[in-house]
Amino acid sequence: MPEVNDDMQLRQKIDELQRSVKTLQLESNKLYGERTAIEKSQNALRQELRKLISQSKHARKERDELTAKVKEEKTKRSELSSQIKDKITTVTSLGKESRSAGNLSYLKRAINTINTKIETEVISFEKERALMKQLHVIEKEYAEAKKAAGLLQEKKESSAELSTLKKTADSVHGNIQETAKLSQEKHELVVAASKSTGGAGVAFFY
Q1: Which of 69, 127, 140, 151 could, after both became Cys, cross-link 98 (CB 3.0–4.6 A)?
Q2: 89-126 pLDDT tens trace
């Protein structure tokens, strides 16, 4: 009888150990599954982090390029503003000087008429002197009118150049606003990416 009891006790212990082994195996499998899930999650997070860092580096590069372009466009706008100011001064000055422009064709006909009269008609010495004096005055007016006409043409050309400069300046100003907006958007992407990664890879961002 004692041997039978010993066998039963041994079998019970074996059964208990087998149950314990199965329980441990189940727990081990569960832990392994959890560990695998954690590792997959960690790998996914690492990939996402690398992706964010890469996107941030690209956005930073684009932001810096856009910022440099804004600076360049502002310099161009400043130069155009200076040219516009100088051109306005030129146009205003030419406008004042060209006001004396008379009727060139009328003055030319008057000169020709007096010359013809002097050369073809028989006139007294006094009348010839008077005509010569009149001719001198008209020729002087003609010379001044011709000079003024040249200034008037120059004024027209300068006014056209001024109009072109203003259009270019408006275009540059529009480019500055558009580029500055894009630069700000890229900067916000960089900041957002930096926050998303908790500051990881900050050296890449700034």
Answers
A1: 151
A2: 877 776 666 565 557 778 888 889 988 888 888 888 88
- Crossing angle of helices 125-196 and 2-97, rounded to 10°: 170
Please spell the DSSP secondary structure of 138-204, one letter per residue.
Answer: HHHHHHHHHHHHHHHHHHHHHHHHHHHHHHHHHHHHHHHHHHHHHHHHHHHHHHHHHHHTTTTTHHH
Which residue's entry shows tokens 């040219």?
83
| Contact of 118 with 132, CB cutoff 8 Å | yes
Residue type at position 74 = K
pTM of the model: 0.49
Helices H / strands E in the chain, number of each? 4, 0
Q: What are phi and psi of 122, to 5 degrees?
A: -90, 110
Separation CA 10–CA 4 (nearest Å): 10
| Rounded-to-integer distance, Cα 131 and Cα 120, Å | 13
68 is written with which tokens?
């440099």
CA–CA dist 205, 202 (Å, integer):
5
CB under 8 Å to 202, separation ≥6 — which residues?
Answer: 194
Query: 118-132 in b/e burial notation, b at 16+ Cβ within 10 A?
Result: eeeeeeeeeeeeebe
